[in-house]
Amino acid sequence: MIKKIDYSKLYQSEGTKLLYNNSLPGILITFIASTVLAFTFVDRNDFQAKTTWWLVMTLILAIRTIDSRMWTKSQTEGNPKTWLLRFSCGCLLSAVMWSVYAVVFYPTFSIEELSTTNVILAAMAGGASSLLSASLLLAALYNIIILMPMSILLMMQPEQYKFNLGSLGICFTVIMIISSARSANYIKEAILLRYRNKKLVSRMEETIRIRTEEVYEISNKDALTGLYNRTAFLSAVVRVEQDFKQHHIEGFSIFFIDLDGFKNINDTLGHNAGDSVLVSISDRLKSCNAADTLMCRWGGDEFILLVKESRHQAISALAQQITNTLSLPIDVGGQTITLNATIGIAICPEHGTSMTRLIQLADIAMYSQKAKYPERVAFYNLDLEHNLLRKIMLNEALKGALERQEFRLVYQPIVDSAGQIVSFEALMRWRYQDQEISPVEFIPLMEQSGRIVEVGIWVLEEACKTLAKMRQCNADICMCVNISLIQFYDKGFVNHVKRVIEQYAIPGHLLHLEVTESIFRSDQMQINQKVSQLQQCGVKLSIDDFGTGYSSLSVIQNMNIDYIKIDRSFIQHIEQKGLSIVQAVMNMSKSLNFMVIAEGVETYKQRQILEQCGIPYMQGYYFSRPMEQSEAWNYLTAASSEIQY
């Protein structure tokens, strides 16, 4: 008995769903048919009556439409029996209205209107047998109400054809009821079978889900963040590769994310704080990405995402959203921590189709970007990989370059306005495996590895040794040596400078140390202290590449800079906007009491303009290219002989 009651409720609930799901097409068809019938066969005598009938029918259909929408929004609420009753009332009212039309307007029917009405009623009855088969009682009542009144009325007429039509309508009604009964039985069996299968599958799925989750959590998830671990991620991405190969998706992207400065958190606040930060970062990654994005903690503070998107614009927008979200402050035990991230991106199929290769390329893009501008996003390109491989090769080669005596210094003269040599700039060169490596390449590598301090000591000693020799020819000649900011920060730098000028008996004012404008971004108190100690020894300080970086006139004044070297980019455009810069620097030099050197002079015209501006010192290919030590000695000797002569 309990099972029968349960099945009855099941049939009623599922049947109500079928009825409401099929209601809107039936309502629409009813509205169209009623409109056509009411306004096709209308004359002055019955216009008002038919219009009134049509308005009532439309009102009933509107109410049924609202009721259908209400059921859609709240189908999980309320009693199915109540909803079935509401639907049945609306449906049967529509059937009554059809019968009213047939009976009330029958006396005015023409043969055409009679035929059309019979066809429409038969069509409505036939459609109802299918649409309303979820409720046998409703389907039967609908067919009886819509067909029987008209059929009986026709059978009562004296004309034989009308009697035949009426008899046919009664037969059709019986057939439709039988058809509805068969459809209703079929639907009940389908509902019951679906219910049993659903229950069976649900139990199986629940059991499997519980067991799978237990195994999955142990073997596939990162214990700290809950993201995929590396092994699970590589297994999961195989399915994505297959989807791409089978053309189910157009492509995908790999995001390689590295947190900037995370090591400092572990070093200063401890690993527990670092773990809390990683959990917060993983939660934020989840909030930024779609459910089908594969997320992995690759190791340490590195994360990998597989995003099923290959359009650059969408990928860039997502990467920007991720960096913005990850950069928000994190509270760890009352301590506010702010981290940023650098993201490398590789796209399938643009950059490749192998998952292993794409991860490698995204890694390359990330590290290449991190070396230039941390906290940004970089898409992989072939040049990045070539550059990275070359950097790795050069970095390894630099480890023993000094011991192998691969470094040397070349010297470029600096002349005064009369063209006389006043100093040389020592420039570092590296010859590796019969190839000249540009300082633009190897000096940043030495700065990143810290080797610049050791090599910088060698450069300073070598330049001062050469200066001591040149003084035999010209006692007033000066030597300019470029100093890295890392080297400048070294604790023993000032003492080493003092030792070298004492060792080679060089007057301090003949040694000029050149630093770039980046020195102004550093700790000014420490920088000023070291500059003061150097200037007490007579050493001069020059600012190289002036105008291309960060400059502060107040800092220049406070540091008592001796020389400013105008960057070559302004000299190259001196006949255009560069002239204004040169003139401005000259005006500043008079008020701030420093000397000006123009570097990168390559033409006579440039020299002429610089002389007109009053630039006292110049340097560039117009006067001489950088020369080997022996060539520089001969160049200086020849110049000194001309002066003596």
Describe the structure.
The protein has helices at 2-21, 23-40, 47-73, 80-104, 111-131, 136-155, 160-220, 230-245, 262-269, 271-288, 312-326, 355-372, 382-398, 439-449, 451-470, 485-489, 493-503, 524-536, 553-559, 568-572, 578-592, 604-613, 629-644, and strands at residues 252-260, 294-299, 302-307, 330-332, 335-337, 340-348, 377-379, 407-416, 421-432, 435-437, 478-482, 511-516, 540-546, 563-566, 595-599, 617-619. It is of the alpha/beta class. The chain folds into three domains: 2-195; 230-380, Reverse transcriptase/Diguanylate cyclase domain (Alpha-Beta Plaits, 2-Layer Sandwich), CATH 3.30.70; 411-644, TIM Barrel (Alpha-Beta Barrel). Helix 6 packs antiparallel against helix 7. The longest helix is centred in the first third of the chain and has 61 residues, at 160-220. It is elongated, with a radius of gyration of 45 Å.
List keywords for this structure.
single chain; TIM Barrel; 8-stranded mixed β-barrel; disordered N terminus; Alpha-Beta Plaits; elongated; 645 residues; alpha/beta
Précis, in short:
It is built from 23 helices and 16 strands. With 645 residues, it is of the alpha/beta class.
Break the fold down into its secondary structure elements and pairings:
Blueprint: H1 2-21, H2 23-40, H3 47-73, H4 80-104, H5 111-131, H6 136-155, H7 160-220, H8 230-245, E1 252-260, H9 262-269, H10 271-288, E2 294-299, E3 302-307, H11 312-326, E4 330-332, E5 335-337, E6 340-348, H12 355-372, E7 377-379, H13 382-398, E8 407-416, E9 421-432, E10 435-437, H14 439-449, H15 451-470, E11 478-482, H16 485-489, H17 493-503, E12 511-516, H18 524-536, E13 540-546, H19 553-559, E14 563-566, H20 568-572, H21 578-592, E15 595-599, H22 604-613, E16 617-619, H23 629-644
Parallel strand pairs: 6-7, 9-11, 11-12, 12-13, 13-14, 14-15, 15-16
Antiparallel strand pairs: 1-3, 1-6, 2-3, 4-5, 8-9, 8-16, 9-10
Helix pairs in contact: 1-4, 1-7, 2-3, 2-5, 3-4, 4-6, 5-6, 5-7, 6-7, 9-10, 10-11, 12-13, 13-14, 14-15, 15-17
InterPro entries: Biofilm_reg_signaling (IPR052155), EAL_dom (IPR001633), EAL_sf (IPR035919), GGDEF_dom (IPR000160), Nucleotide_cyclase (IPR029787), Rev_trsase/Diguanyl_cyclase (IPR043128)
Domain EAL: 391-640
EC number: 2.7.7.65, 3.1.4.52
